Amino acid sequence: MPTWARRHTRKRSSLEASANWHYKGGGDRGFGYSATLAIAAHADPDRAGRYPQLILGMVLRTPEKEMGRHAHYVSAVLAQLTELRGFTAADRAYTKLLPENFHRPMRALGYMPVLDFTGPQVNSARADGHHQGAITKVGRLFCPLTPRRLLDLYSQIRSAKNERERIPLRERLQEIEAYALTRKDTLDDRGTERFACPITKLNCPWAQERESRGAPKKGPVPVVINLDAHRERTAHPASRPTVEPPTLPLAERPKCCRQSSVTVQAHVMPRTRQELPWQTPSWALAYQTLRAHIEGGNGRLKSVDSALHARERRQPRGRVAQTLLSAITVMVHNIKELEQYLAASKQSAITGLDLEPNDVLLPYPTVSLTVLPRAQALSRSP
């Protein structure tokens, strides 16, 4: 959001006291403000065109300052107007924010972040860690015996130049699902979760020894199975990967291997934990669809008709004046979007309020008690 005023220098200060340098993804910069926008979108590409893609909220802020707080402010205002909750996506700059400024407040409102990771979050030495013996990688917990070649696929996907290179790597990455710990219990009131050992997906002598203690032995493995029965086929040990753990006494084994499940606290991987695991097909579909809606909204705001990025249309100085003029531009843009949506709805038999035959809307998460009630008014200043 460039401004008409000149930039700061060593000899003089700009008349836009709260403006600063805004750095774009490609390295370019411009002197002005940054805008935090909330754009209507859906994680299912088949829902495109079923509703008007409006700009639901906007905050004009100083660049590089309190991005997470302003995003939470816009989301909190929307939470008072509707009980709908769902996936929310943002660019990689939001992934690097402090968890208490963005990730945790957004989850407390009921939104489920769908975020992409930066190179250092995947490729650096600090990207790999351990929690109670399990390997922590890209917000997930894996068996300590996970092959290194599978863990390195995440770095290869992050280093890929385009989607054409990522698709074959993403297909190979499906092999790692057998080593991922399974979520046993959802978040409780303290924000902790329970994850179970992937014994149902792996052949592990340690896990078999643990399960056999104090439990009656199961019958022999069936020699003949029905290949048409998916459950019977996947439950057979021959269809699972086999790990060969070293010879260690029980006391020296990782904690996640000594017991069937472990507790994961809220402070473990707060920036990278997601409901949709990173680079899985479900994550790729949701993230790419949401980001396409977001970038489409940004492009329409910067078109010839709206020209939100044109500084000559906002010559009055001051953050208040810049905010008011930008808000008027967004309002006019929304009116145009509504007119186009109504015109398109008259030509199509299906509107946003009508469902196709055998079409069911996916349920959204229930509203958490931490959402601000409607009676409590938020301050108009973020």
Task: Give a brief outline of the structure.
The protein has helices spanning 67-81, 92-95, 103-108, 119-123, 148-159, 163-172, 205-212, 230-235, 255-258, 281-301, 319-347; strands spanning 20-23, 29-32, 34-39, 55-61, 87-89, 112-114, 129-131, 134-137, 140-142, 182-185, 193-196, 261-264. The protein is of the alpha+beta class and 382 residues long. The strands form five sheets. It has a three-stranded antiparallel beta sheet with strand order 7-8-9, with no helix packed on it.
Please explain how this structure is put together.
The chain is of the alpha+beta class. It has eleven helices and twelve strands. The strands form five sheets. Strands 7-8-9 form a three-stranded antiparallel sheet, with no helix packed on it. Strands 10-11-12 form a three-stranded antiparallel sheet. It has a two-stranded antiparallel sheet with strand order 1-2. A hairpin with a 2-residue loop joins strand 7 and strand 8 (134-137). It is elongated and about 80 Å long.
